[in-house]
Amino acid sequence: QVQLEESGGGLVQPGGSLRLSCAASGSGSEVKVMGWYRQAPGKQRELVANINTGGFAKYADSVRGRFTISRDNAKDTVYLQMNALKPEDTAVYYCKLLEVFGGAEYWGKGTLVTVSS
């Protein structure tokens, strides 16, 4: 049973920073893509950033240059460092794990990020 445990959300003022963490357990796959999606009220869930086992990262245009995704393969943990946060970054952020061989996908429960003064 694959489980994803997210942490790090909260309330921050515009221009501030937050760091999200997502620790995976139970996945036996050696090749995985881990990443973050977000869903704002009334909007569809969208990709924020993801990173594969080799360290190749992909970012949404809206966060490129402000957010940095990284991972610790030994700990099966992915991080999202969010800087220069804007009110439009407010959303529930979800961690996702994709096992490349087999195609199984797993989602975390989500963590709320609120950017407001």
Word description of this protein:
It contains no helices and eleven strands. The model has no long low-confidence stretch (mean pLDDT 95). The chain is mainly beta. Strands 2, 4, 5, 6, 9, 10 and 11 form a seven-stranded mixed beta sheet that branches. A four-stranded antiparallel beta sheet has the order 1-3-8-7, with no helix packed on it. The chain has strands at 3-7, 10-12, 18-25, 32-39, 46-52, 57-59, 67-72, 77-82, 91-99, 105-107, 111-115. The chain is globular.
Outline of the structure:
With 117 residues, this protein is mainly β.
Tally of strands: 11
Shape category: globular
Give the helix proportion (percent range): under 10%
**Average pLDDT metric:** 95
* Rg, Cα atoms, Å: 14 Å
Give the topology string: H per helix, E per strand: EEEEEEEEEEE
Structural class: mainly beta
Question: How far do the termini sit from each other?
Answer: 40 Å
Biggest beta sheet attributes: 7 strands, mixed
Residue stretches low in confidence (pLDDT < 50, at least 5 long) are none
Give the percentage of residues in beta strands: over 45%
Number of helices: 0
The quaternary state of the protein chains shown equals single chain
